[in-house]
Amino acid sequence: xxxxxxxxxxxxxxxxxxxxxxxxxxxxxxxxxxxxxxxxxxxxxxxxxxxxxxxxxxxxxxxxxxxxxxxxxxxxxxxxxxxxxxxxxxxxxxxxxxxxxxxxxxxxxxxxxxxxxxxxxxxxxxxxxxxxxxxxxx
Length: 138
Hints:
Blueprint: H1 3-15, H2 21-28, H3 32-41, H4 44-78, H5 85-112, H6 124-133
Helix pairs in contact: 1-2, 4-5
């Protein structure tokens, strides 16, 4: 594989697959030094941010568009006007995609939230022990 092919593949893995430079280095057999150079030289962090921001903006625009369509259809119903079938069909297709958009958004939020065990919370074992010993529940 040529260096250019490795560069484009490494860039794709970093930006779209969100892999670390260490993972990319192992998979492609590249040194960390060359990966850090490429990352800085070709602005991979900026590109990764732009991709994520574009996805977020698309989600917001899709939800806003669905709200506007629902408001228009609601207004048509209130005025006893017939809503054109293509508008209803479009709304139905958008509504089908909203769970996928929600799932994607939730996955992004999970990546940003550090996985820590909450402090000051009772574990299920402690709750069962309290139920048995204090409340007398079995």
